[in-house]
Sequence to fold (60 residues):
Amino acid sequence: MTGPRTKGAEVADKIAEVAEKRQLDRALEEGLEETFPGSDPVNVTQPPPSKADHHVKRRD
Fold:
């Protein structure tokens, strides 16, 4: 049977928990930076129709 936990053991567990969270946060931040930008920016204007689009009717 184990005795009650000491204050030192509780502090050590808390320190380990905080260190693990920091490591996870750093990994997530690095992953986010590596994937930025997530996609190309949205094109607001429509390009002019190509020769292959002669059958497509566009409304302006």
In short: Residues 7-34 form the longest helix (28 residues). The radius of gyration is 28 Å.
